[in-house]
Amino acid sequence: MFGQAIGCEDAKTIIENGGQLINVRTPMEYQQFAIPGAINIPLQELQFHVEKLDPQKPTILYCRSGSRSGYAQMMLNQIGFKETYNLGSVNSYFTCN
Questions:
Q1: Which of 12, 20, 76, 97 has a CA that sits 20 to 30 A from residue 59's CA?
Q2: pLDDT for 19-34, tens place per residue?
Q3: What's the pTM value of the predicted model, to 2 decimals?
């Protein structure tokens, strides 16, 4: 149903090389626990703030479970983002060895 997924090691490499990391959870969820350097754009607001993102850069999306980030990935792909990845759960990033 959703687009391309990405593992934590690959995500870290893309982020280190200038990729965008987008947290699509609510501001409250973001304040409680977030990946350092992530931009918080809640899924329900993404369409109104897409200009904050560079469609030419690799974009990694995450949420609590992977569902919202999957929907965000589909939205971005539909408007022309070429390289988007669903990291899934925020926890997957921190459990990476």
A1: 97
A2: 999 999 999 999 998 9
A3: 0.92
